[in-house]
Amino acid sequence: MKKVMAVNAGSSSLKFKLYEMPEETVICSGIAERIGHDDAIFTIKYNGEKDEQILPIKDHAVAVQILLDKLLEKKIIASYDEIKATGHRIVQGGKYFASSAVFDKDTEDKIESLIPLAPLHNAAHLVGFRAFKKVLPEVPAVAVFDTAFHQTMEAQDYVYPIPYEYTEKYDIRRYGAHGTSHQYLAQEAEKYLKDVNHPRLITCHIGSGASISAIKDGKCVATSMGLTPLGGIMMGTRTGDIDPSVMKYCCFCENKDAEEMFQIFNKKSGLLGVSGISNDSRDVIKAMNEGDERAKLAYQLLVRRIADFIGQYFVRLGGADLIVFSAGIGENSPETRELVCDAISEALGIIIDKELNNELRGKEGLISTEESKIKVAVIPTDEEIMIARDAYNMLLK
Ligand code: ADP
Questions:
Q1: Beta strand pairing status for 200-206 and 322-326?
Q2: Which atom of ligand 1 has the smallest separation from the CA of 271?
Q3: pLDDT tens for each residue of 169-181
Q4: Each residue of 24-80: pLDDT tens digit?
Q5: Would you state the pLDDT for residue 118?
Q6: Does residue 190 surpass a pLDDT of 80?
Q7: Is the pLDDT of residue 119 over 90?
Q8: Cα–Cα distance between 230 and 31 in angstroms, integer?
Q9: Residue 11: per-residue pLDDT
Q10: The pLDDT of residue 1
Q11: Phi/psi of residue 2, each to 5°?
Q12: Are residues 146 and 93 in contact, defined by beta-carbon separation less than 8 angstroms?
């Protein structure tokens, strides 16, 4: 039995989950939030209890130190060297990484070189990795990339129709995101596809960030997110795919530059922008059910975009055997699943059991009936276990 820490560092946060491997038992989990502030929040969940503390956390290295001290204080570990490996989520692996990589100097340099493609994310991941390295210098680490699973796409699915020299010179292409989640879902989905040769799968990771993938024989064929996580379906605050001239015209009308509008398209659009109410689907659904017209429109847009991508991928795969819903909205919102399935049922012959669908919140199961031409399942995603597995398999096995 070996303890492995899965880490997801953001610009002002650090999420962690400590596993006993290879049993995959979660020992504890938690998050340091508002890093850089005097009133940062450190939360750890252990043995069914939640311990939350407000305290100054200057930087990520301090957060890691607090985490390790907590593990000792709660007797979760007797000494630091019980932690045998760490695994770090990295959003952008660019063209370099088609699978996870041991965190050596070369990996670090490549992740650093990709910062322009994911400025907020990759920079923060490196800060998180270096913080662990500072406090646990001897503990080996792996980098697990959100983009790696999508590297099996063919050029026709990832090249943008811009001047080709831009594609070549600047590596501008569709990289996708949430790859670790889509890969997890594809693996978990195998149990529903045992009698199918060459299974075709459409995985819908619908949370505040959202993406849809087309998967054949366990490999990603197409995915909705693009060069950055702004592309694809509409999201909580992001536009998803739109005509690029909308960007230019909004800049002109609002007298803003491309950077300002890019921020607005990332942070003030999507469900929030259209509804004017919230980026949280719960608030938007509530307002919609109370008769708010803009909330209704916002939700219709979201459902339409999801349905359109499912249709597109049905064609891309030459059919589909299973559609999977996952992440915050996909796992917990039967309303959204029902609306999406209603939008595609006539074309694709999908029939869901509405009672079964209503019962499934945050739990796994099929929601389609025997008569449905395509199975539909809810599968809660687990990106952290994928990180812990790679760390264990690559470093400790
Ligand atoms: P991310 O990891 O991208 O931040 P999550 O996958 O955690 O996002 O999803 C968060 C979103 O899930 C919330 O913004 C909320 O809209 C949605 N969500 C969570 N629970 C429910 C629910 N019971 N009903 C509808 N939406 C929900």
A1: parallel
A2: 16
A3: 999 999 999 999 9
A4: 999 999 999 999 999 999 999 999 999 999 999 999 999 999 999 999 999 999 999
A5: 84
A6: yes
A7: no
A8: 25
A9: 78
A10: 85
A11: -135, 140
A12: yes
- Give the Cα separation of 140 and 136 in Å (integer): 9
> Where do we find the tokens 């006993």?
20
327 lines ligand 1 (CB under 6 A): yes
Is residue 120 packed enough to be buried (19+ CB in 10 Å), middle (13-18) or exposed (0-12)?
A: middle
CB of 208 within 6 A of ligand 1: the answer is yes
Query: For 271-298, how does the pLDDT look when each residue is reduced to its tens digit (9 = 90+)?
Result: 999 999 999 999 999 999 999 999 999 9
Residue of 10, 9, 6, 374 lying closest to 193 (CA atoms): 374
Query: Residues 82, 68: contact at Cβ < 8 Å?
Result: no
Q: Which of the listed residues 182, 272, 281, 303 should we mutate to test ligand 1's pocket, taking the one with most ligand atoms within 8 A of CB?
A: 281
- Ligand 1 centroid distance, CA of 287 (Å): 16
Mention every residue, 6+ apart, whose C-beta is less than 8 A from residue 11: 120, 123, 124
Chain-centroid distance of CA 108 in Å reads 22
CB of 10 closer than 6 angstroms to any ligand 1 atom = no
Asked if residue 284 has its Cβ within 6 Å of ligand 1, the reply is no
Cα(172) to ligand 1 centroid in Å equals 30
Pocket mutation for ligand 1, best pick of 178, 184, 282, 340 (most atoms within 8 Å of C-beta): 282
Among protein residues, the one whose CA lies closest to atom 14 of ligand 1: 280
For ligand 1, the distance from its centroid to the CA atom of residue 211, given in whole angstroms, is 13
pLDDT in tens, 228-278: 989 999 999 999 999 999 999 999 999 999 999 999 999 999 999 999 999
| Consecutive H or E run containing 295 | helix 293-317
Query: Residue 281: CB within 6 Å of ligand 1?
Result: yes
Please choose from 15, 204, 280 the residue to mutate so as to test ligand 1's pocket, defined by most ligand atoms within 8 A of CB.
280
DSSP H or E segment with residue 288: helix 281-289
**Spacing, Cα 327 to ligand 1 middle (Å):** 7
Q: Cβ(229) to ligand 1 under 6 A?
A: no
Q: What is the pLDDT of residue 316?
A: 97
| 3-class state of residue 188 by DSSP | helix
Catalytic residue numbers, as ranges: 146
Cβ atoms within 10 Å, residue 164: 10
